[in-house]
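Ops channel
N.P.: pipeline sanity check, posting one input/output pair.
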C-alpha cells in the first residue's frame, strides 16, 4: 500500500471502497478521479499517488488527466463558486473595480479560496452577458451590472 488518504472517516471509506472496486483497472482512471472529486471536492496529491498505484497507471498519466479536464481541481474549493467576467465589455464597465471589492471583502485574490472554504473566486474571460456588464456569477446565478458597492450585499446571500 502507498500513501494514506487524509480525508474524513466517511469520505475515507467511500474513497477506499472506490479504489478497491477499480483496483488494477487502468481504464477506470477518469471514473475514480471523478468519484474522489465528488466525495472530497478536489483531488489531493496523496490520493493521486494512491490512484496511480492502485490502478497501475503511471503517475504522469494520472496528473495529465487530472490537470487536463476542467472538471477536476487539485486545490480545495469553496462551497460557493464566484466567477467575475473580465471580458472587454465587463472590463470597460468597471469589472476591475468589482474585482478589487471582492478581493477586499473576502481577503483573497482571484484564483484562491477563503480560509473557511466558503468561497472560491475566479476571473473568467467571458460569460456571454455583455449587455448587462459587468457580470458576476455565484454558483451559476447571474448578478448583472455589478458595482463595488453591491459586492458585500450579494455575497451575504450565500451564507
Amino acid at each position: 500500500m502507498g500513501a494514506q488518504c487524509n480525508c474524513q472517516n466517511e469520505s475515507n471509506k467511500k474513497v477506499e471502497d472506490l479504489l478497491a472496486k477499480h483496483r488494477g483497472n487502468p481504464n477506470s482512471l477518469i471514473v475514480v478521479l471523478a468519484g474522489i472529486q465528488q466525495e472530497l471536492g478536489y483531488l489531493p496529491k496523496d490520493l493521486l499517488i494512491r490512484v496511480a498505484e492502485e490502478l497501475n497507471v503511471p503517475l504522469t498519466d494520472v496528473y495529465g488527466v487530472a490537470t487536463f479536464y476542467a472538471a477536476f481541481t487539485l486545490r480545495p474549493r469553496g462551497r460557493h463558486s464566484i466567477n467575475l467576467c473580465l471580458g472587454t465589455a465587463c472590463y470597460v464597465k468597471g469589472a476591475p473595480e468589482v474585482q478589487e471589492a471582492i478581493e477586499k471583502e473576502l481577503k483573497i485574490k482571484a484564483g484562491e479560496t477563503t480560509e473557511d472554504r466558503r468561497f472560491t473566486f475566479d476571473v473568467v474571460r467571458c460569460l456571454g452577458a455583455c449587455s448587462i456588464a459587468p457580470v458576476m456569477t455565484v454558483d451559476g446565478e447571474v448578478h448583472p451590472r455589478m458595482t463595488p458597492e453591491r459586492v458585500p450585499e450579494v455575497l451575504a446571500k450565500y451564507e
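N.P.: looks fine end to end. The chain has two domains: 9-68, 80-156.
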